[in-house]
Amino acid sequence: MAEKRNIFLVGPMGAGKSTIGRQLAQMLGMDFIDTDAEIEQRAGADISWIFDVEGEEGFRKREERIINELTQKQGIVLSTGGGAVMSKENRNHLSARGIVIYLETTVEKQFQRTQRDKKRPLLQDVEDPRQVLEDLSKIRNPLYQEVADITLPTDDQSAKVMANQIVDLIENING
């Protein structure tokens, strides 16, 4: 890839954005940035704490600032949080500043991948996490579709296979 265009990964929690993003960045010799990790590092606190203290709205404001800043860099692979697409501003920045790849997954697969993860504020202290994932997918999936240049299902592939597929698809886009 002569031109290092930004690659932005969107999709629900548990789709593999961070895992696939790291693999992809390594293969392409690009920097990998995870917006959630970046927010935690800058805040000096984990996302659950930010949610507790500032609520989801406070977290989303931080996320908007960071996505605006990071999408202006060149040659990065950026993994966004599952709810990043809820902001029109974020969707505009992602669309305008790089190739957006929607890593699609089923609610069942999400549930399997996230059920033991204690770092998912939207799934903590809820009676039916599967229903929460179902409800989020109804709202967010159309937004992932709207912003995506490429949509890839992740359920049955390893991160390495997914990263290879993305490299091939991007090379086709770049001609």
Automatic annotation (TrEMBL):
Looking up HAMAP family in the UniProt record yields: Shikimate_kinase
What cofactor does this protein call for?
Mg(2+)
**UniProt-annotated binding residues for ATP:** G14, A15, G16, K17, S18, T19, R120, Q157
The main enzyme category here is transferase
Reported EC number(s) for this entry are 2.7.1.71
Highest taxon of the lineage: Bacteria
Enumerate the catalysed reactions.
shikimate + ATP = 3-phosphoshikimate + ADP + H(+)
Q: What is its main location?
A: cytoplasm
- Note on how the cofactor is bound: Binds 1 Mg(2+) ion per subunit.
Query: What keywords are assigned to this protein?
Result: Amino-acid biosynthesis, Aromatic amino acid biosynthesis, ATP-binding, Cytoplasm, Kinase, Magnesium, Metal-binding, Nucleotide-binding, Transferase
- Pathway(s) the chain acts in: Metabolic intermediate biosynthesis; chorismate biosynthesis; chorismate from D-erythrose 4-phosphate and phosphoenolpyruvate: step 5/7
| NCBIfam families linked | PRK05057.1 (NF003456)
Q: Which GO terms describe its cellular component?
A: cytosol
The UniProt annotation places substrate binding at: D36, R60, G82, R140
Tell me which Gene3D superfamilies the record gives. P-loop containing nucleotide triphosphate hydrolases (3.40.50.300)
Q: What does this protein do?
A: Catalyzes the specific phosphorylation of the 3-hydroxyl group of shikimic acid using ATP as a cosubstrate.
- Show the PANTHER family listed in the entry: SHIKIMATE KINASE, SHIKIMATE KINASE 1, CHLOROPLASTIC
* Organism, scientific name: Avibacterium avium
**Protein name as catalogued:** Shikimate kinase
Task: Enumerate the GO terms in the molecular function aspect.
Answer: ATP binding; magnesium ion binding; shikimate kinase activity
The gene coding this protein: aroK
